[in-house]
Amino acid sequence: MKQLIATAIFFIGVPVFVVSSCAQSPVNTFPDRQWWKEAVVYQIYPRSFKDSDGDGIGDLQGIISKLDYLKSLGIDVVWLNPIYESPNDDNGYDISDYRNIMKDFGTMEDFDALLKGMHQRHIKLVMDLVVNHTSDEHDWFKQSKSSRNNAYRNYYHWWNAEKGTPAYRWSFFDVQHDAWKFDTATNAYYLHYFSRKQPDLNWENPQVRKEVHDIMKFWADKGIDGFRMDAFQFVAKDTTFPPLPQGYEKNIIQYYGMAPGLHDYIKEMYSEVFSKYPLMTVAEGSGSTFEDAHNLVDPERHELNMAYPFEGIDLASDPKGYSLLTFKKVFSRWDSAFARKGWLSIFLANHDNARMVSRYGNDTPAFREASSKMLTTFLMTMRGTPYYYNGDELGMINIKFSSINDYRDVQTINGYKNVKDNGGDTLQYLALQQYASRDNARTPFQWDATANAGFTSGRPWINVNPDYTNVNESAQTNDPNSVLNYFRKAVALRKRNPVLVYGKYTLLEKNNPAVYAYTREGGGKKILVVLNFTAQPATVKTGISTGGAKILLCNYSIPSKDSQLRPYEAIVYQLKY
Ligand code: GLC
């Protein structure tokens, strides 16, 4: 029912979208069309997008001042990282009040104006829902830790010390990677999968779930359009906390989350919230098997709209590079697992990973532009809802800080302390962070060539990438061949061609180590995509004739002919059908 409402409202609210796709192929050609399948999502990291008041921190008024820019991209949805009240241990992922706006970011009036401005431009807003944990400064936790008898005690996971030391649990951000923190006030340990300032909520407590539903309704009543559910696979865990078997770290999700209760929690959320509002819903992660992922998004189960699988983003975590053959295998496998039922997101970057072009492409001056455009071509021509991270449309690259003092991310800073405390090699650690730290993706958006890239008139909370004089929005917007204008073209191409959203995907030349080639077919169209993922010329032999084909997009001014591709060349053909 919810999906029908969502579709209807969208059709009324945003006729452009439907009209343009209908003109190309009849609405009924593809089954189960949904606005959130056809949308392009643009992720904004608010702290780094645009500062309006000179305090060096991006804010809501800053985003408001860039609404026309967002519109010019052609995107449909903005996913905003958390903007709620927070002491900022993890840049807003530690929430102390879910119904207020972080002071650094502005006020609730600013939020209302932002939402209105987006809706006036037919852009939808998806908010981050961070409810695996709260901040330790949230009132619930303050109450919970005050006494064993407090009414909020059971909102969190406590282990009384007289039972002995709890079985080890690994923490993502803790300096010692220990997820249990002893608290003297009540002689007990509390659980925190992330930092010590992010205690995990106890989802087995129905009162906690009710509080979360009320928070969701508060925002849904304001008219927001969806939720991205942060770290959600961790909410359901085995709360007997048994010792873990050897090798558990190879499948951390299986042991740390995805406990059977998870689906019940989501179904309950569906009946309490999702069934009552036209919301787009996406989980962060997708469990540890295809079955887990399917169970989250199978429309008949009434849970979520789409999953956000990590396999593709994880395969580029080694600075030595990744294998294109593996990349093709992973994306093809996920595509085929969801070809008939369920839905996925598709992405190569976000605020938790370094820059797309630095990880998957080539960020040297010679190839930064071509490889950024090639990767954009990939994202906009695959099945799944594309999630595109702010700044990637300019081809922004890793900043590669050399001193720990330049970093702001709790993960990098506490990781450094861990290496140091344990006598490890801090220089090696810093070298790895130049490739991997999340702060690489969190430097300020580069608007123009003025001081601080036009991001702030004050001192930015994190350094601006010095390449901003060369890489910035203002220079690119006027250049028809820029990375930015290529992104706009690629988005528009996807919006004009529902075959790129829904069409059958067929991998070609599976064993070609340099070229990713595939077709998308359906609704009376067949599209061929060829992508050279390397800095050398490459040959592609798909066996498909491109004679008479129309070239829809290419990242070189004159596309190559005869199966030879230049470095990072990307060509999208509409084949004769
Ligand atoms: C998610 C967020 C990440 C955050 C973590 C803890 O993975 O994407 O930024 O640090 O959850 O909330």
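^ alpha-D-glucopyranose complex. The pocket of alpha-D-glucopyranose is lined by residues 90, 93, 130, 194, 230-231, 284, 351-352 (CB under 6 Å). DSSP finds 20 helices and 19 strands in the chain.
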